[in-house]
Write a structure and sequence with these properties.
Length: about 675
């Protein structure tokens, strides 16, 4: 090969590698954005006290390898679930994928053909598992006779199931779905539960006992949901309040779903599925919310291994790591039922890879970080603490927050849960009444509003978090009331505008721009209406920060700085807008289509900013350009150019040396 040809090949290779690398960066790793935070969840509504909240707990594959079976035989099978039992029983019902057979009299074995002691079934029921899927690739590991025995054992243990039928029932029309009835506080909902699998590992199914998901039952040919699957989901949609589908699909040890899973989830969502619970990959796969025809479907592409022994693959694939996935369900006062979101408890197999347990708060940060990434919740806002709940307590996806004078639920509670725990009371103050219908801060619409001593919060169900609940600019309104002749001006250089170090520290630590807005005044001295003392204050769009008199700077920050009681001073929406509320906001209004949004240094204007900014004297703040990919491409082009120049210089020298040697 001559030098020119070699140089050309090298340059082409360089450009190819650069293009490949940039293509990967430009798509943010995944074109489907499943590696980005899921900002649409949770969707808890406005906290109507008449709503009833249910919790459906879901776990992954249950297939006991021989070392786990040995522990169960020695200590009893209930022993296997001691660490997770309280977390499963804190739901209205819990689910698992039962991946194997229970045929008494046949040897109890692990991989590759699983057969378990029937004593496993009552232990699962005692742990809180009330329903299982029986459509999976190991359900025929003891053939049709073993499947018949497994279904009989589940029935005897009181565990409901869907996904396969007995040989005696295989010639009859099979139930399209399993109806599940949940009751809480006298309120009842009916769930249509369905289960399907990609195949049975090539094992013969002579009686067509197992529900198949795809047109092909070959592992490497997944895709194309069967019409009868979609028809069954559609029937469940018509006849029940909510539809949950368990799908045994995808490919092993993959952190992200295959395109067949994504397309299959979309088809099932269109047919009427509200929740899709995936399994098969032996490692967690992401959560998503699919928007179809104005409806939303919550999908987790893989729940990984609930009870198995694949710890040998933990380092590369996190195969000993899973979650208990809590799905929230709301029945509204108008009778409608919908999914409210999810929470999750990270789990890991302990005691020599034989028992699932919550991951401790400290000590396995890398594992928790991975779980949060896959759960699309990098800050852990939806993570359940590894503290066993009190027997009888519910792990709620949409919990309420108690105040001295009442409690707050729905998305308003979600808003407060995003704040530092010790600051909730200091940032909210007392409640000034229940959630009511009132005008938004831009005086254009009505929505659900919560008024506290220190904030006026508006519910915007069409917005993703963190703008689902935002504060009215009552700092601006009260400032206008007190100083009607002063010009109101946003100070976009926040650090420079906050002249007091303690106020700046409080602003940064307890909410910043999202909670307080921009500064709109200088430091002022005002007379406290309650104590008669003078105090130093500064107004922000949504708050007034105050230095508490006579408190030393060595005291905790929440004792040095407080929020003004603007909720009590605010004149009200009628005084502000001049028009009483006329619209009715639905308590169960669904959010808009979810968006996965990359973090930004400059937050967008919140929903109630538009009209108020028209009354302000402002100039547009500088918005930093975010062209990281273009920058990388430019660098790549420059690098490629530099390499070409080097090759050219080297080629020139090579030719000179060649000419000399040929003379």
């Amino acid at each position: 090969m001559n030098f020119n040809h070699a140089r050309t090949v090298r340059v082409i290779m360089i450009i190819f590698l650069l293009i490949a690398g940039f293509a990967r960066d430009v798509t943010a790793q995944h074109a489907d954005r499943l590696d980005m935070p899921l900002l649409a969840a949770n969707m808890c509504g406005d906290g109507n006290p008449g709503d009833t909240h249910f919790t459906f707990a879901a776990t992954g594959d249950t297939f006991l390898h021989e070392n786990i079976q040995a522990v169960g035989e020695t200590h009893g099978y209930d022993y296997l679930f001691d660490y997770v039992r309280p977390f499963l029983q804190a739901a209205d019902i819990a689910y698992a994928n039962f991946d194997g057979a229970m045929l008494a009299g046949s040897p109890y074995t692990g991989y590759p053909a699983f057969n378990f002691n029937p004593a496993l079934a009552p232990a699962l029921r005692n742990a809180g598992i009330g329903v299982v899927s029986t459509a999976n690739n190991h359900i025929l590991d003891r053939g049709p006779h073993g499947l018949d025995a497994t279904l009989a054992v589940l029935d005897q243990a009181g565990i409901l199931h869907h996904g396969a039928v007995s040989t005696s029932a295989s010639s009859q029309p099979r139930p399209p779905y399993l109806p599940l009835t949940l009751t809480r506080d006298g309120v009842r909902i009916t769930i249509g539960f369905l289960s399907f699998t990609w195949g049975t590992n090539g094992l013969s199914d002579p009686y067509n006992q197992v529900n198949l998901l795809w047109a092909s039952n070959v592992y490497g040919q997944q895709g194309d949901v069967r019409p009868e699957v979609l028809a069954a989901i559609a029937q469940a949609r018509r006849e029940t309040d909510l539809v949950i589908v368990a799908a045994h699909w995808g490919y092993e040890y993959q952190f992200y779903p295959d395109s067949s899973q994504i397309e299959g989830a979309r088809r099932m969502a269109e047919a009427g599925a509200d929740v899709i619970l995936g399994a098969q990959s032996h490692t967690l796969q992401p959560v998503d919310i699919i928007e179809t025809n104005g409806r939303q479907t919550l999908v987790i592409y893989s729940l990984a291994n609930f009870l198995a022994s694949q710890g040998a693959f933990q380092i590369p694939y996190f195969s000993a790591t899973s979650v208990i996935f809590y799905v929230g369900i709301i029945r509204h006062t108008d009778g409608s039922v919908r999914v409210s979101g999810y929470r999750y408890l990270p789990t890991i197999h302990v005691d020599h890879d034989t028992r699932p347990a919550p991951i401790p708060s400290q000590g396995q940060e890398d594992v928790v970080r991975h779980v949060r990434l896959i759960m699309r919740d990098v800050d852990g806002l939806r993570q359940v603490a590894p503290i066993p709940p009190t027997p009888g307590d519910q792990i709620a996806v949409c919990p309420t927050i108690p105040f001295a004078d009442g409690q707050i639920g729905g998305d308003f509670a979600q808003y407060f849960l995003m704040l530092p725990g010790e600051s909730i009371q200091a940032l909210a103050g007392s409640l000034l009444g229940p959630v009511t219908l009132d005008m938004t801060g831009d005086c254009r619409h009505t929505t659900s509003v919560l008024l506290t001593e220190r904030q006026r919060l508006e519910w915007h169900p069409a917005q993703d978090w963190p703008y689902r609940v935002v504060g009215t600019q009552i700092g601006t309104e009260v400032y206008r009331q007190r100083y009607p002749d002063r010009l109101i001006e946003r100070r976009f250089d926040v650090d420079a505008a906050i002249a007091n170090d303690r106020l700046r520290m409080f602003y940064t630590q307890y909410g910043g721009l999202r909670l307080f807005g921009y500064p709109i005044s200088d430091l002022l001295t005002e007379l406290d209406d309650h104590t008669g003392q003078t105090k130093t204050v500064q107004y922000f769009e949504r708050a007034r920060l105050e230095l508490v008199p006579d408190v030393p700077d060595t005291a905790p920050l929440l004792e040095q700085v407080q929020l003004g009681l603007l909720g009590r001073e605010y004149a009200g929406s009628v005084a502000q807008c001049g028009t009483p509320p006329v619209e009715r906001a639905a308590h169960n209004a669904p959010p808009s289509a979810p968006r996965a949004i990359a973090p930004s240094n400059t937050p967008p204007l919140e929903p109630n900013d538009s009209a108020l900014t028209m009354t302000l004297h402002t100039t547009s703040p500088p918005v930093p350009a975010r062209h990281g990919n273009l920058w990388l491409i430019w660098c790549g082009i420059m690098l490629a150019s530099l390499l070409i120049m080097i090759e050219a210089i080297a080629g020139t020298r090579y030719r000179r040396e060649t000419d000399r040697s040929n003379r």
